[in-house]
Amino acid sequence: MRIESIKSHLKGQTIMSRKSTFSAAFASALAPFDAYSREAVAQGIRDLGQDPEGDLSCVYCGTEAATWDHVFSRVVNGEFSGHGHRVRNLVPCCRSCNERKGKRQWRSWLDIVAPGDAVERASKIEHFLSHAAASPMTAEAMDAAAPAEYERYREIRSQVFALMAEADALAVTIRGKLVAAASDPVTQQQKT
Length: 192
Ligand SMILES: [Zn+2]
Prior knowledge:
Layout: H1 19-30, H2 38-47, E1 67-70, E2 75-76, E3 79-80, E4 90-93, H3 95-101, H4 106-113, H5 118-130, H6 139-145, H7 147-183, H8 185-191
Antiparallel strand pairs: 1-4, 2-3
Helix pairs in contact: 6-7
């Protein structure tokens, strides 16, 4: 490590710099989820061409799976994508693919991580996805089913962001006033 790397710590932090974390939380809270059914999961695994009774492998690169990847991410550009924690949206995945796939579409990730097998693996994933019982939850559907609640939900999100921005401005003022007070001769005199 070089001493210059300390620079990333020597600067003001803001609450708004975490906005994407809060956006993701608001999106995730809307995301639907399936109840656990071993048979439903096992059928999905068979559709992926794997043995549900054995050790599962990563649908992207073929190495041993260590986690479950959301094929379609729940949050896109800070908004709820309509996809949730559904059995037909969760596939066995290795740690490396899970961390590196990021915001990419599953097909582009396949092309990167397994170019030779991408076509064969893509057809398995397509087969798996074609049996999804539920379609993605759209903003229109939420607006139609629960208009008042959905509107208030978005309003609260905006208010939270506005409050975060206000708190950021207050933090700057508080720091500024502390510095001013520390260098003000009157304040210094009062202390002694
Ligand atoms: Zn992998």
